[in-house]
Structures are given as structure tokens and as C-alpha cells.
Amino acid sequence: MALDLALLVAIGTVSWRLRENWVAARAREQKLYRDTRQAVQSPGVSVPAAPQPVTATGYADIAQKMLFSKDRNPTVVIEPAPAPPPKPMPPLPVLYGVMNLVDGPTVIMSERADTAHQGVRTGDKVGEFTLVAVSRDEITLEWDGKDITKQIDEMIDRSAKEPAQPPPGTPRGQQTAVTTVAQQQPVERRADPVPGVDVGKGMRSCLPGDTSPAGTVSNGYRKVVRATPFGDQCHWEQL
Length: 239
Known about the structure:
Strand 6 and strand 7 (146-151) form a beta hairpin. By secondary structure, the protein is an alpha+beta fold. The strands form three sheets. A five-stranded antiparallel sheet has the order 8-9-12-11-10, with no helix packed on it. A four-stranded antiparallel sheet has the order 4-5-6-7. Helix content is 25%, strand content 28%. The protein is rod-shaped, with a radius of gyration of 60 Å.
């Protein structure tokens, strides 16, 4: 009986130990299952924002920070075009004389020597030139925004026919006399008085050689002669 009792106690002890080991193993198994399930849980998925469309301004940094050129920048330098050469000034008009009438001076001019002359007053054009001012000794013309002032004696046309040459074999004293007489020949006198070029405001100039007296009427004009400190001024007025 003692042996049976000892065996019974031993069996009870072994059974209790086995149960404790099973309970401990079960607890470890449950803990390991919980830890593994929490580790495999995936986090929430975030949706990325839609990409922005590509624009030309997005490449500004590339142009400004070019590694191979330190002076690279987006500023475009446009060099100015070379200035055109200055326009050449045409020849000055030909001046034949100045008439100082009651209402101001009138200049007899022509664009070239082979064109008809005309009466020009301040502000009128002669070819590409504009008459700006007239004084006793000077005349001022404007061309391309520039004023050109010349002496009247310098501009006036004094072209005349060369004097007749004496025949060969004439003595030197007679040659001088012939040349002097040829140079002093008076202007050919006109038998019929005719008004000259139109100088504006119903008036015309007097032609060289016109010796008709004041008050002469011709072609609807009357000749007027006025005495001035610079000599007699002659013109024709329309009737």
C-alpha cells in the first residue's frame, strides 16, 4: 500500500507538472501569434498627387545655372544696327537776284542752271531746299533739318559769255582795247517791254535790258519803279 501510495503521489506530481508545461507552452504560442499578426499588418496606402504639366518656364534654372558657361543668363542682348551713311546734300540752288518789295524780299532762284527761275519767298521750296531767311548780305536755306547760310555775292549767278577775241595778228594795245570794249558792252536793250518771271502776289520781275519807263503797261501788267537806298527796284504789277 505504501508503494501504491508513493506511485500515486508521483503520478499526480508528474501530471501537475505536465499541465503547467502545457499551459506555459499555450501562453507562449498565443503571444507569438499576436506579435506575428501585428507585424504583418500593412499600413494605409496614400495616393500621390497628379504631376504638373511641363512648361517652358520650368527650364529657367537650366538656362541660368548652366555649368559650362558662368555668364549664362536669360537676357538676350540685341546689338543696334549700324547707322546708315549720311545723305549727300544736293547742289545749292542758283541765285539770280533779290527784290526787296513792299511786303518783303523776293529771291529769284532756280533749282539748277538749266531749269526755269522763279520768285521764291520765305517758306517756299526750291527743289529740296526751303528758303528760311533773307538779309541784305546773306541768304539762309534749310535742307534735311539743317540751316545753310551763304553770302548773296557767293551764290549769285554771274555767268556771262566770254568776250570776243581779237583776230590774230592784232597789236597788243589794240587787243586790250577790243577786250575792254567787249567787257563794257551794255545789256541789249529791249524794244518791247515784257514782264519777267512770276514772283508771287500778282507781280513779275523786270528783265535785264528793260528800259521802258515806269507806268508802262504790257500783257496785263504795269511797270513800277521805286527808289531805295540800294538803287531803283523794278517790278510789274498785275492790273
